[in-house]
Specification:
The chain is an alpha+beta fold. Helices cover 16% and strands 40% of the residues.
């Protein structure tokens, strides 16, 4: 019985770890390039370029933002006009664009409005 409970506990722990998305801080962004993770911060400014490209500057206003979230495509439906000053969590691959930290978002499940 103890062995069965131990095996069950290990399996549950492994399943929870595998399904949980790794959460990173903005300070560790460069150490995690190419990895998928979640960052949460405040939206400081929004720049809408077209109906398929919107940039969200997180952690500070442009050009001093901690990182940029590039919302590409038209699947993500956010009220961009009212995002400024609101907390936002995004999940995606950490990458650099023109030597600046960026996460590209193209699917609704990559965005969570609550921290």
């Amino acid at each position: 019985m103890k062995k069965i409970l131990l095996v069950l506990a290990i399996l549950v722990g492994f399943a929870a770890t595998a399904s949980a998305q790794k959460r990173f801080s903005t300070e560790g962004f460069s150490k995690n390039l190419g990895k998928t993770g979640t960052l949460c911060d405040t939206v400081y400014s929004v720049r809408i370029f077209s109906d398929t490209l919107t940039l969200l500057n997180m952690g500070a206003a442009y050009p001093n933002q901690k990182y940029t979230v590039a919302v590409k495509g038209n699947k993500v439906n956010l009220d961009f006009a009212n995002l400024k000053g609101k907390p936002l969590c995004v999940t995606g691959v950490f990458q650099m664009f023109k030597n600046r930290p960026e996460i590209v978002v193209s699917e609704p499940e990559q965005v969570n409005k609550s921290q």
